[in-house]
Specification:
Largest sheet: 8 strands, antiparallel
Number of helices: 1
Strand order of the largest sheet: 1-2-5-6-10-9-8-7
Length: 269
């Protein structure tokens, strides 16, 4: 799990929030309406949350579209008590926005992201680039490097991928992922699924499961058919969850790491 940042620019509140100013121009939209247009956003890390969110000065938010929440939730967003419903085009989106209890952030409003929670605003932009799922953490790096190391992947004693042409993806807080050319993967042993996930650093992934096998979790292989420009080198390549397969690099077996993904990666019953 990514660590909280510790740079001097990050400030802490008595409630356990961490926050820092951002210099990015951020806009949030619902349909054709711009609800947030901010040149002074702040990034906020809630207690025990691995990813940040944005909060915005009240004057940079369309507060005329907000109404006091009819059914404010409890136990959400680090002690927040003030929630807002978003009234938009005749519809009411419950608890789409809120304020934090911290004095430092009292004049800021935060919003849910639709593609993360199923509620709130559905389009977000940093400068002119659309961003997804959650804001990108400025204290987290994602580096992609082409390699020539010998990477072999096995499942239950059977080799399912073997390559000398991996692309290595290094992401803060996660194990190295090895993206393998399709022709070096035994794709005949796998079947595509309808599962997909979104990542603000890489894009939208599609998945495969081992055919008819109870020896591996579902959706154990993934690929980004149209990755974001910063990680274009992984396009169309396939990666395996290190947490659930046997990977060796240059003949050296790797230990299976324990990550936030480990719990969901359990073999089928």
């Amino acid at each position: 799990m990514p660590l909280f940042p510790t740079e001097r620019s990050v400030r802490a509140t008595p409630e356990g929030l961490l926050w820092e100013p951002s210099e990015r121009w951020v806009r949030g939209r619902k349909g054709d309406v711009t609800v947030v247009d901010s040149r002074h956003p702040v990034l906020v890390w809630e207690r025990d949350a691995p990813v940040p969110l944005y909060a915005f000065p009240r004057e940079e938010v369309r507060t005329d579209l907000l109404r006091p929440a009819k059914n404010p939730p409890t136990g959400r967003h680090t002690g927040s008590r003030i929630f807002y419903d978003l009234e938009f085009d005749g519809d009411l989106l419950e608890n789409a926005a809120w304020t934090f209890p911290a004095d430092d952030l009292a004049d800021h409003i935060a919003f849910e992201w639709f593609r993360r929670t199923g509620m709130g605003l559905d389009q977000w932009y940093e400068e002119e680039e659309e961003i997804f799922i959650h804001p990108r953490d400025p204290h987290k790096r994602v580096d992609v490097l082409p390699g020539s190391r010998h990477v072999r992947v096995g499942i239950d004693g059977r080799v399912v991928a073997d390559t000398h042409r991996p692309v290595l993806l290094f992401e803060t807080g996660l194990p190295t992922r090895y993206y393998i050319p399709r022709e070096d993967v035994r794709l005949d042993l796998f079947e595509p699924t309808d599962h997909s996930t979104g990542c603000p650093y890489k894009g939208t992934a599609r998945y495969w499961s081992l055919r008819g096998g109870a020896v591996a979790p579902p959706n154990i292989v993934w690929s980004y058919p149209d990755p974001l420009p910063a990680v274009a080198a992984i396009k169309g390549r396939l990666a395996f969850f290190n947490e659930a397969v046997d990977i060796s690099v240059d003949g050296e077996p790797l230990e299976r790491p324990v990550t936030p993904f480990s719990r969901m990666l359990r073999p089928r019953a």
